[in-house]
Amino acid sequence: MEKQYYKSTGISLILGSLLIILTMVLHPSGGSLQKIIATSKMITSTHILAICCLPFVFFGFYGLTKKLTNAYHISILAFIIVSLGLIAALFAALFNGLALPYFLSIHSEKLTENLAIIKSITSFSFAINKSLDYIFICALTVAIFLYSLQILQLKTNEKWIGLLGVFILIITVLGIFNNFVFTSLLGFRTFTFSISIWIFATGTLLIKSK
């Protein structure tokens, strides 16, 4: 019964990671208000896809937490942190991917005459989204690091997954200190692709669990 549970949560992590990658591949680049309006359907679709992947990732991390739980319960702390990150991702997708395109679409005909007000509202929306993105990035980085420390203690041939998690933390910290913009499309794609590889790998680890 437990083996089947780990298999289902592992498959969930793999599916979630693939959906994350697909989301970032399809995600259009930013631009002017006119460009956002013109690509609003694509923006909305990719963010709906992003929201859809969150339950799969959440369920998968729950299985990973159960697999790695020991006397110190570090994996439970990691699960709490990753949950906060996923909640931040949900609200970021809601604000920037659903609410903002909808808001601009309904005001598209009066864009010029209300430009100052609309720019203020969109700037506020972007500021919230940037803050939520950083919460997501920091939370996932720390959670993956904590999970990776637990994986390194397992008697398994998959210790490279733990080393990859430590590597992600080091690269993220170096990026922050070198002013790498993680909230740009390139920066966010780089981060999400790296964690997707780790999530996919942990999914295979769970599937192989006995």
The main sheet comes to: none
The fraction of residues assigned to DSSP E strands is under 5%
Taking all Cα atoms into account, the compactness measure Rg is 19 Å
Q: How far apart are the first and last residues' alpha carbons, in Å?
A: 10 Å
Mean pLDDT: 89
Q: What form results from the Cα inertia axes? A: elongated
**Share of helix, binned:** over 70%
Number of helices: 7
When the domains are counted, the total is: 1
The number of distinct β-strands equals 0
Alpha-beta content class: mainly alpha
Residue runs with pLDDT of under 50 for 5 or more positions:
none
Q: What's the SSE pattern? A: HHHHHHH
In short:
This protein is mostly helical and 210 residues long.
Outline the fold blueprint.
Elements: H1 2-26, H2 33-38, H3 40-68, H4 74-106, H5 115-151, H6 159-177, H7 185-207
Helix pairs in contact: 1-3, 1-7, 3-4, 3-7, 4-5, 5-6, 5-7, 6-7
Tell me what the structure shows.
The structure is a single chain. This protein has helices at 2-26, 33-38, 40-68, 74-106, 115-151, 159-177, 185-207. It is mostly helical and 210 residues long. The protein has one domain (2-30, 39-101, 124-207). The chain starts with a helix and ends with a helix.
Task: Identify the notable features of this structure and list them briefly.
210 residues, mainly alpha, elongated
